[in-house]
Amino acid sequence: MALQGNLREFSLVQLFNLINLAKKSGALYIETTGQSARLVFRDGKLVYAVTGLEHVPLVRMMARAKLIPSSLAASLGERYKTFSDKELGIHLINAGYLSQEQIFAGIESHLKETLRGLFGWTDASFHFEMGELPPDGVIPVRMDLESIIIEASRKLDELEDLKSEIPSLEMVLKFSERPGLNIRNVNLNAEEWRVVSYVNPKNTLRQIAGAAKLDDLQVRKVVFNLMQAGLVELVRPNGGAPISTGRVAPVVRDPAEQISLLNRVINRIKSI
After folding, report:
1. Which of 122, 124, 189, 249 has its CA 20 to 30 A from that of 72?
2. Of the candidates 39, 205, 212, 10, which has an alpha carbon nearest to the alpha carbon of residue 124?
3. Minimal CA–CA distance to 207: which of 176, 250, 165?
4. What is the pLDDT of residues 136-190, one digit of tens each?
């Protein structure tokens, strides 16, 4: 029987558990709106992971894991751009940049970060292709799934808690007319500023998430924080039925309007 379905009915935790316990070998394909992932397993262990269509080169993995400086990664990537990951890994070891253990640790860090990026995918189709292998030239690191399964379970529990506060991503945001006292201590991070810049009665939370490149869990966490700060309120679009399709209204482009938007937020904070 083919392993396929949707994450609405069969969660990532259940998928990983099945693959782990059945010691499956092959590729798991996951697709949602505008995003895709390919995970390759061997005997139930993860050996390769990529989101989108682009393979992440070895030097970029090492830089993201802070094992080599970004400047060195860029230089090596350009100089040895025809090398496979295996060939470049041998060079990094022979040149004394990294040990084999450090390279394996950097690849495992990349695999974990890729999987963490999937935790918020709750409405995505998937199918498993038996026997598929990772691309030629990559370094296969067999990573156990147990710790990731535990972490994913916690994230799903967190998502369920947030759903009680934000039940649907088809709702929209508006700036609070009467901000609470909590707004005094607001200090927005980059993700929160991105969401604030898309606050518009025409934009559903799902559309904002897509425009801001946030998954379901991330956008709910950001919106919940903004609501707790008293900066925004959650309402149904146009006071009526939810909107589920259509393009997101663009972020403000005109400099004067951009300044006006920022001033609105700042003035709300100062006015309390």
Report:
1. 189
2. 10
3. 250
4. 999 988 998 888 888 777 877 787 788 888 888 888 888 877 655 555 556 788 8
Positive or negative, the CA dihedral 148, 154, 155, 157 is positive
Among 207, 224, 228, smallest CA distance to 197 is for: 207
pLDDT tens sequence across 59-111: 999 999 999 999 999 999 999 989 999 999 999 999 999 999 999 999 999 99
pTM: 0.64
**DSSP of 163-174, one letter per residue?**
HHHS--TT-EEE
The pair of structure tokens assigned to 34 is 């505008």
Q: Three-class SS of residue 198?
A: coil
Rounded distance between C-alpha atoms, residue 140 and residue 86, angstroms: 9
Task: Pull the structure tokens for residue 226.
Answer: 């903004």
Residue ranges per structural domain of the chain: 4-157, 166-270
Residues 6+ apart with CB under 8 A from 61: 106, 107, 109, 110
CB 51 within 8 A of CB 36: yes
Report how far apart, in Å, the C-alpha atoms of 223 and of each of 100, 108, 217, 234 are.
Answer: 42, 31, 10, 9
Q: Supply the DSSP symbol for 234.
A: E
DSSP state string for 30-85 = EEETTEEEEEEEETTEEEEEEESSPPPPHHHHHHHTTSS-HHHHHHHHHHTTTS-H
